[in-house]
């Protein structure tokens, strides 16, 4: 995901309390954002099975409806 997309996802997650659906393009896993670490450009996600993970910005793709 581009930097502007990452910033938007982080804004929605941190300021609007929205959980943005994301797909990890390397693994194919789906998760929902719950936080961002701006220094490392990562998104913290909760996977569909309830596990928590952290994905690099470049590995994320926002899922559209």
Summarize the structure in words.
- The chain is α+β, with helices and mostly antiparallel strands and 65 residues long.
- It has one domain (3-62): SH3 type barrels (Roll).
- Helix content is 20%, strand content 40%.
- It is built from 1 helix and 5 strands.
- It has one helix at residues 3-15; strands spanning 21-24, 30-37, 42-47, 52-56, 60-62.
- Strands 4-3-2-1-5 form a 5-stranded antiparallel sheet.
- The model has no long low-confidence stretch (mean pLDDT 96).
Blueprint (SSEs and pairs):
Elements: H1 3-15, E1 21-24, E2 30-37, E3 42-47, E4 52-56, E5 60-62
Antiparallel strand pairs: 1-2, 1-5, 2-3, 3-4
Provide key terms for this protein.
65 residues, alpha+beta, SH3 type barrels, five-stranded antiparallel beta sheet, 1 helix, 20% helix, 40% strand, globular
Mean pLDDT: 96
**Secondary-structure element sequence?**
HEEEEE
State the end-to-end distance: 17 Å
What is the number of domains?
1
Short description:
By secondary structure, the chain is an alpha+beta fold.
């Amino acid at each position: 995901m581009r930097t502007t997309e990452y910033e938007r996802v982080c804004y929605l997650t941190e300021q609007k309390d929205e959980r943005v659906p994301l797909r990890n393009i390397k693994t194919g896993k789906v998760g929902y954002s719950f936080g961002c670490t701006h220094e490392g450009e990562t998104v913290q996600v909760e996977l569909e099975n309830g596990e928590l993970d952290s994905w690099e910005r470049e590995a994320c793709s926002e899922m559209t409806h």
